Amino acid sequence: MLLDRLNVSAQVLLLAVALLALALFASTSDVHATGGAIRVLESREQVDFPNGVGLSVTAESDAEIVEVRVFFRAAGSRTWGYAYAHFEPGSRVVATQSIPDAESAYLAPGVDVEYYFLIRDAHGSVLKTDRARVEYLDDTYDWKRVNVGPLELVYHDIGDGRVADTVSQLQHDLRKVTDLLRLEPRSSFKGVVYKSYRDANAAFPKQSQTTTDHGTFAGYAFPEQGVFVGQGMDRRIIVHESAHLLFREALGDSAVDVPAWLNEGFATYVEPNVRIRGSGDLYGRTLPLRGMNSVSGTPSTIPLFYYKSVSVVAYLIEEYGEANFRLLLDHLADSESIEEALLAVYGFDVDGLDNLWAGLPVTPARSDAVAQPSVSSSANEASQREGSADSVDPGRSFEPTPYVPQSAPGRPTGGDGPSPFLFFDVWMLAGVAIFVAVVLGFRLAYSRLRRRGGPSEEDNDDSYDAGWDDR
Fold it and tell me: How far apart are the C-alpha atoms of 445 and 435, rounded to whole Å?
């Protein structure tokens, strides 16, 4: 009998615990998951290129709906943005919002936008909708797609033969980039290729009228959105912009912003058949490296920015080796600044790099620098590069020996030569010697003339220097 009562009590206790747990779960679900009495009746999306993506949601609740927020991001990004949707509060609402939510923001063509709604009513119930995705692309074109390794190319109105030729070469080009970075891409990225500059320019970010008129930029990369935009099925442009996205992935999310000379220099360096100019062609015509943290200038000077950027990056890679360049990227990936990373790997800072590239002497900032030049003299530079792991692509036009130390125009070389003060001392001593010789010669001539003219009282003066007597 007692045992039966204990069993009944235990059952009642277990039932009470189960009901309590169910109540707690229901309460939590009302706030964070199901939304309680809130129900979504319809959700819509509309691409309005180039103005953005229009989103709308129709929802109802037993209580008045007082807040609707839409959260959005580029697919794969870690950062969510949000905006308050527009609607009239009530038990049934139609809330609308456009992405991006500010005129200053830019949404790249081809980007996949992830979004969801968060709806709250007057009773405190909250409903979070499932995530949805929409591709932001101009539907006035008949887009086609092809995959090249991690790259998905999206293009329109370009012949199949041209596409096939380009794709076959891109396989090799992109593998060279990933090999140099020692990178296995974690995810794919997208490249949107317009047939002409006119088509692409309508989709590019807003530029100055001068830049637009001159067609200064043929492509743009958006690493945070996982996409680039370019004009024409141009292999060089595709590789350059792809390199920007792969370079950013190699650095990772912890890296601080790298200077533009490094970013643009690397992307240009891996272009097929790129021509790299030596410092002799560029010195005095470009900004100091420290002033090249961002791309700036006029349509006539911006190309010089790129010429110097790729020349400096080529100097780092081909003089000190690919391994040290990857080590530099590792330091940058660890949130170090470019100054810290250069000092850690090479033993010189940005100014030191600038001087070395120009062929000027520089005192190493550290005596225990990790990196050492991969070549020892300019005479055998070309022969040492052949067959090495860091050899130059023979299909690329590369100006020979651009980094041999030499005098730069209008800039003193300094270094190990004689001190200018040594020459000053020599000339001063020579001048004194000449002056003494002239004085002695004059006195000797004067003494001879006086002897020929007869004796005088001064000739008998004991203080007269007999050394001047002509015997």
Answer: 16
Q: Structure pTM?
A: 0.71
Spacing of C-alpha 461 from chain mean position: 90
**pLDDT one-digit tens code per residue, 312-368:** 999 999 999 999 999 999 999 999 999 999 999 999 999 999 999 999 987 666 545
Sheet holding 151-156, edge to edge: 143-148, 151-156, 189-194, 227-231, 219-222
Q: 378 Cβ partners below 8 Å, 6+ apart?
A: 401, 404
Please write the tens of the pLDDT for every residue from 182-210. Answer: 999 988 999 999 999 999 998 999 877 77
Mean pLDDT of the chain: 78
Write the CB contacts of 176 (distance below 8 Å, at least 6 apart in sequence).
270
